[in-house]
Amino acid sequence: MAKPIMAKATAVWLVDNTTLSFRQIADFCGLHELEVQGIADGDVAGGVRGFDPIANNQLTAEEIRKGEENPLHRLQLKYNAAAVGEEKRRGPRYTPLSKRQDRPNSILWLVKFHPELSDGQIAKLVGTTKPTIQSIRERTHWNIANMQPIDPVALGLCKQSELDAAVQKAAKNREAGMTDDERRKLLSTEESLGMDTEPKIPTAIAGLETFSLSGDDDDDKDDTVPDADSFFNLPDNDDDEDEDDHR
After folding, report:
1. How many CA atoms lie within 13 A of 87 on its CB side?
2. Distances in Å between the alpha carbon of 78 and those of 9, 56, 86, 98, 129?
3. Is 197 within a domain?
4. Number of helical (H) and strand (E) elements in the chain, helices listed first
5. Helix residue spans in 74-232 (DSSP H)
């Protein structure tokens, strides 16, 4: 349920100017019932000036009358078209003082590992300015020599879901701005998985994969083992007998 602005001052005004119950005022202003009772007793919000919700377009007199007639009626904040969206955060993200010194390191990490992110996206993620991001991109930052890239999620400067959403949006924008030739160079997942994993042999040495030191003539060689006489070239017995006859 939406709460009125200056809730405690509004509660002071309602206590002083209406007969609404403490519970009704507490529910409308987002306070505890005992706190409203303390306001009525003068123990709480001493010196706080009442803030008129009717004059400031937060309640109608008719709504207050309904609440006074029915103690169970819950007051409804008046619709204010000018206040729509005021609850959303505006401007750069607030960074605690203890983490501001680490912000340049997170910017360096984003620039290095996610170059597709725009300066506006980085500024929104870590709460910085575009001139600071530009100086880190161009490495002209005064402390660039001492900076180390650190994940902004690890530093608590943004959530992982916010970083993932920014990266996905940047990827879609980048793909939308690509030319047809650049898209043709990109391989789909199915095409990359279907590619050969083994290296191809260059054409200049094609056929050498079957080359071996032993030729095809090995199959034609005779596998019979030669006898001892062929090794030592021993003379035949007939030649010995002829020598004895001549003596």
Report:
1. 8
2. 17, 10, 15, 40, 37
3. no
4. 14, 0
5. 97-100, 103-113, 119-126, 130-137, 152-155, 160-176, 180-185, 189-193, 228-232
pTM equals 0.39
Cα 130 to Cα 140: distance, rounded to the nearest angstrom: 14
Contact assessment for residue 10 and residue 16, using Cβ atoms and an 8 Å cutoff:
no
Q: What is the DSSP letter of 117?
A: S
Q: How buried is residue 115: exposed, middle or buried, by Cβ count under 10 Å (0-12/13-18/19+)?
A: exposed
For the stretch 127-182, pLDDT in tens is 888 999 999 999 999 999 999 999 988 888 888 888 999 999 988 887 776 665 55
Query: What residue type is assigned to position 243 of the chain?
Result: E
Indicate if 103 and 60 belong to the same structural domain. no
Q: Which two tokens stand for residue 49?
A: 């000036």
Q: What is the residue range of 166's domain?
A: 97-176
Full DSSP string of 38-99: HHHHTSSSTTPPP--TTTTTS--HHHHHHHHH-TTPPP-PPP-GGGTTTTS--SSPP--HHH
Residue 219 lies in a domain: no
* Cβ atoms of 92 and 141 closer than 8 Å: no
205: in domain:
no
Contacts of 160 (CB under 8 A, 6+ apart): 153
Residues 3-21: tens digit of each pLDDT: 788 888 899 999 999 999 9
Distance CA 61, CA 64 (A): 5
